[in-house]
Amino acid sequence: MTDHQTRSGLSRRRFLLSGAAIGAAAVVSTSVVSKAVAAPLKLEKDVVKLGFIKLTDMAPLAIALEKGYFDDEGLQVALEAQANWKVLLDRVITGELDGSHMLAGQPIGATIGFGTQADVIAPLSMDLNGNGITVSNAIWEEMKKHVPMEDGKPKHPISAAALKPVIDGLKAEGKAFKMGMVFPVSTHNYELRYWLAAGGIHPGFYSPDNVSGQILAEALLSVTPPPQMPATMEAGTIMGYCVGEPWNQAAVFKGIGVPVITDDEIWKNNPEKVFGVTKKWAEENPNTLLAITKAMIRACMWLDEGNGKNRAEAVKILSKSDYVGADEKVIANSMTGTFEYEKGDKRPVPDFNVFFKYFATYPYYSDAVWYLTQMRRWGQIPTGRTDAWYAETAEKVYRPDIYMKAAELLVAEGKAKKEDFPFGSDGYKPVDTGFMDGIAYDGKKPNDYLAALKIGLKGAQKVVGNAVEG
Predict the structure, then answer these.
(1) Rounded to whole angstroms, what are the CA distances from 424 to 39, 189, 209, 412?
(2) 194 near 212, Cβ under 8 Å?
(3) Could you give the CA distance from residue 54 to residue 190 in angstroms, rounded to a whole number?
(4) How many helices and strands, by DSSP H and E, does the chain display?
(5) What is residue 39's predicted lDDT score, i.e. its pLDDT?
(6) Which CATH number describes the domain made up of 3-125+271-363+399-420?
(7) What is the pTM of this model?
(8) Structural domain boundaries of the chain?
(9) What is residue 16's predicted lDDT score, i.e. its pLDDT?
């Protein structure tokens, strides 16, 4: 591989494949057979450009490239960092990118027409967990007065209830409390809102006439690109943020802030990023999409293999400027089974970054439905919808059918085991009780779930002007 290929992110060799093609709808045996007898996919497109944002959870793309998994599928792949999530989505929609690392809510938001209208699908979930909420040193010093202690250290998880008196104090001084999140339909926005609301702090509504998300808000949330979070907080523009790694740990290393909670503590094993393509691209390139999905599944397997035995190598790869480009120590702080809160308060968090176990790569309909409930909760979906609508919308966007075809191929090739995948799943997880406020989530009953949440829209309620009606 040439230096130029390394810099541009091109795969290291290009296989010329021959043999019978396996159609997108092929029925593949799930028994393990010799790799030698597995017929190669006939690719509609073997040169592809895929986008990503400089976050550690882009790792499946980097590993699929570096470990030759894309090569094994006959793919020549260029990985290209994008400026922000909006640019990334726009470039997938226009075809400048064939597909991309995406926020789990992006394909859903696009499909329902919030912000951008486009049919985007997600055949693969890229990871679970991986985010944190960080506040500035000054905010933390005030919050800490209201945080229970255990063995001389703050007791985790830390509730936003400890932040409420700090916000009240700022309000009394005529000051607004401002926090950053990465995009209106990001996991980060919904996790931050969930944490705030669970602590009795209203994070604000959206409406068709006002998409600031700050209607009736006690905490003003706004968009900041992930790599800019630490500098924006250090400048005093925001007082805290919710972001993926390595940008929470960067605040610790810079000595400018304290991560107060991880998303795994807000919602245990929450889905975070997905791989997304337009529906049109998927229909025109079904085998190419299967090949990409196969390679990324293998990368996720490698990342979680042997209780994290490959994570140190993954950290070195991700630290390259072509990928995340952050200091190895900063990336390792969360990628290798620990997480540092206050400086020196490093704790074991073995599931902070999950890429394959717990069926992490399977795109569950129930995950898509949860994102839709949060869009409804905060007014991005302005009026009530039936449970059937939630299910139908989830099925348009999340595509476990494509995922399972890729899984079947990997099993048939002897590259994975049948038990690695949720064969027989209807796409819905069991009732989830892993939320910090103890409220159970049943993906088949989204309206019941919304009704159980104390803060947020439910039923026929809607935001009109600066008030909630209905």
Answers:
(1) 25, 33, 44, 17
(2) no
(3) 20
(4) 19, 18
(5) 67
(6) 3.40.190.10
(7) 0.92
(8) 3-125+271-363+399-420, 131-268
(9) 29
